[in-house]
Amino acid sequence: MNDSTTGSQPAPVGLLRRLGCMAYDGIMVLAVLLLVTLGVSIFGGITPEHPWYPAYVLLVGLSAFLYYGWFWTHGGISLPMQTWRVRLVSRSGGAVTWLQSLSRFTVALAQWVLVLWGIRLWNTGQVPMAAGVGAVVLAGLVWTVLHPQKLMLHDLLSGTRLIRLGPDRSGGI
C-alpha cells in the first residue's frame, strides 16, 4: 500500500503513538465489557463460584475480540486509531482477515498476560522472577523500537502492521 500523496511506503507507527492508541482503545473496550457485564448482572450476576462463570469469562473474551476484530476487518481503524492517525493493514498493505485478527488478538492478549504476571510476581515478593519477566517485556519493546517497520510480536505472528496515516485535511472543528 503506497501513500497516494508521495508514492512511498506509509510510515510505520512508533512505540509512543502505539501505546497512546492502546490506552485509548483500552478505555473503549472497557466500556464494551462494562456493558456486557451490566447485561449479565441484570439476570442476577455471576460470581467465580457460579456454574455459568466460565461461560461469562468466554463471553467477555469474545466481546473484546469482536470489538477489535470488527474494526480491524472493516477498514482497519477504530475510533482511537482514527484519533491517533493509525490504520491496521495486512503485511502486503491490504485488508486484515478475521483469522489475522484472531491471531493478533490472541498474541497481544498473551503479551498483556505476561505483563500482568510480572506485576503479580513483583507484588508477591518474587522479585527475581518478576525481573526476568520484565526483561522479556523490555526486550520486546526494544525490538519494536529497533525494527525498521516498528513491528511488535503480534504484528509479526499475525501478518499485520500498523501504518501512520497522513494529516487529517477535512478541516475538522
Automatic annotation (TrEMBL):
It is found in: Cell membrane. Residues 13-159 form the RDD domain. Keywords: Cell membrane, Membrane, Transmembrane, Transmembrane helix. Pfam families: RDD. The keyword Nucleotide-binding does not apply. GO terms for cellular component: plasma membrane. It is a multi-pass membrane protein. The keyword Membrane applies. Signal peptide: none annotated. The chain crosses the membrane at residues 27-46, 52-73, 94-119, 125-146. It comes from the Bacteria. This is Uncharacterized membrane protein YckC, RDD family. It comes from Ectothiorhodospira mobilis.
